[in-house]
Amino acid sequence: MDKLIITAALVGAELxxxxxxxxxISPTEIAEAAAAAREAGASIVHLHVRDAExxxxxxxxxxxxxxxxxxxxTDVICQISTGGAVGTPIELRAExxxxxxxxxxxxxxxxxFGDDVFMNEPSSIEFLASRMKREGVKPEIECFDAxxxxxxxxxxxxxxxxxxxxxxxxxxxxxxxxxxxxxxxxCVASLPSGARxxxxxxxxxxxxxxxxxxxxxxxVRVGFEDNIYYSRGVLAESNAQLVARVAGIxxxxxxxxxxxxxxRELIGLTR
Length: 271
Hints:
- By secondary structure, the protein is α/β, with parallel strands linked by helices.
- The chain has helices at residues 27-40, 60-73, 90-94, 122-135, 147-157, 181-189, 205-216, 239-252, 260-267; strands at residues 6-9, 44-47, 49-50, 56-57, 77-80, 103-107, 111-113, 116-118, 138-143, 166-171, 196-201, 219-222, 229-231, 234-235.
């Protein structure tokens, strides 16, 4: 079985300091959290960024500063979010791709997101996919619903996304894929040959789904974007603490954890 790839989702677009006092917000704080997550076992950091007031932003200058600060500190793979926050126009969501990060998320369908709707029309998905291909950015296929898998395969047929594919199943969002093991098994069974995948369990679904993914040969995403608790009612101290727990479980189960360079080779990153 290949080594485990751990992604740390450090910030998110919805979380506030009131909810999580340890949330990294400034470029320096995000970079330091990325370096700590790397030391704990993460090979990828999934990045949302915030403006000076702490609000989510797709501002290219802020992303540029965050990427620069991370590169000063660590060799971790930087994966930017093109989801932004709910309601962000597609043109703004795409702007940070001009920085040509190694990876970026590509959400392949619309989903009810709690009381909101995260819109991803086919034209918007194809726009982002085309932009990623032009910039040489590897898409992580972000699936909030099982039907998003077949949407991604249509992008391959159209020549907008190249194989091998890397999927992220975001499970436990109200309105999306339930955070249950049978639903994960269904998603994995729906994948094309040669695809790699990870699971991002939201809230209390995080740890159970992570353990199952480790055993099945998948990969895992953890971090404050997905879950702020280390145990019931106990806030996590850092993103690195959540990463270290998953890395420890994987090693106890006999599966080693990939370094960033090993993850690059497994995913097929070429630059």
